[in-house]
């Protein structure tokens, strides 16, 4: 019966020391988690649909030469990472929805969310970095080691890669915001 | 004089609603932040000292051809990112030390730590990913786009890159642990 955020409003009379109500931004949490799901889905779909085949001269004859995401380990890691984050975001969106019905369990959930969000952030940020590192070589090449740029030939493929990376970066920012949100909500429940 | 470790001991009688003492793992926080500083420093130093020059045949004559971290935008990003995290870790180690003296401000600090740790995690995880993506091409090449492996020639350079990436990964894991620690400490201060 000690305190709530809104002064004077008593709640939960049975508990000996109820937590302060704190701010409740559960709806924002659900929205952000759904955004993460959308970003993960789009990132994966855009990348895997970007395969492109071009005719390349080989010993004087034009030979069809495909560019596929599967050819680059960095892009494979990207697809795996964002598949994991997509799955994770479905589970946590449901968890976040269920916790709206059970506000007394919210503190425990916030702790779990923070743990797993941090891990997912590490995974998808590194995947975005790996994809971007390889894509930059594809775009500009690296003359020092004679790695030629390929985006002049594979324009559609590179556009898909660029779009996918941009959405991946957006997804990473969403996870950072989710960590902010959980931290802020947890902090607001600590008595001053 | 306000808080103690042992639960249930009445404390800070002047405040109307004292925070629960919670767990106090400030020492572990300082140690982890120092580890992040050491990892950042080692990652940067090992990468920038890895330059190697080899003789390469060019039009029939051997020509000295250097391999430098500066030649790859991904490695430049890596060095910048870990320089930032090194600087950040110095500042937050001092902040974490100062908060041991002022435990009443700890909750506020934990929130700030969580915010900035999440941001730094995003930066160094993506830098580690970018570096690893490029290093993997250097190690294995990519026959689909005729990017040749270079680690067979530049062995010392590649060893430095690999060492630096391993330490960078370690640094990223340390930041994840820091987020876990702050979240756990904050959670322990919320009344049950």
Task: Explain what you see.
Chains A, B: It is a multi-pass membrane protein. Chains A, B: The chain crosses the membrane at residues 30-50, 74-97, 109-139, 165-186. Chains A, B: Residues 1-20 are annotated as: Disordered. Chains A, B: This is CASP-like protein. Chains A, B: Belongs to the Casparian strip membrane proteins (CASP) family. Two copies of one chain form a homodimer. With 192 residues, chain A is mainly alpha-helical. Chain A has one domain (26-188). Chain A has four helices and two strands; from the N terminus they run H-E-E-H-H-H. A two-stranded antiparallel ribbon of chain A has the order 1-2. In chain A, helix 1 packs antiparallel against helix 2 (73-101), helix 2 (73-101) packs antiparallel against helix 3 and helix 3 packs antiparallel against helix 4 (155-188). The longest helix of chain A is centred in the middle third of the chain and has 35 residues, at 106-140. Residues 1-16 of chain A have low confidence and may be disordered. Chains A and B meet through helix 3 and helix 4 of A and helix 3 and helix 4 of B.
């Amino acid at each position: 019966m000690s305190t709530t955020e809104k002064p004077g409003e008593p709640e939960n009379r049975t508990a000996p020391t109820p937590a302060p109500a704190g701010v409740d931004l559960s709806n924002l949490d659900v929205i952000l988690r759904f955004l993460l799901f959308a970003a993960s889905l789009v990132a994966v779909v855009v990348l895997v649909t970007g395969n492109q085949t071009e005719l390349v001269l080989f010993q004087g004859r034009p030979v069809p030469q495909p560019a596929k995401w599967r050819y680059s380990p960095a892009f494979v890691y990207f697809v795996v990472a964002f598949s994991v984050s997509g799955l994770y975001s479905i589970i946590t969106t449901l968890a976040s929805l269920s916790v709206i019905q059970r506000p007394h369990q919210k503190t425990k959930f916030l702790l779990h969310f923070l743990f797993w969000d941090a891990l997912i952030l590490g995974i998808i940020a590194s995947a975005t970095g790996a994809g971007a590192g390889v894509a930059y070589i594809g775009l500009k090449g690296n003359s020092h080691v004679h790695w030629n740029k390929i985006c002049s030939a594979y324009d559609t493929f590179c556009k898909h890669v660029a779009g996918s990376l941009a959405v991946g970066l957006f997804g990473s920012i969403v996870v950072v915001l989710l960590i902010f949100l959980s931290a802020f909500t947890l902090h607001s429940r600590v008595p001053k």
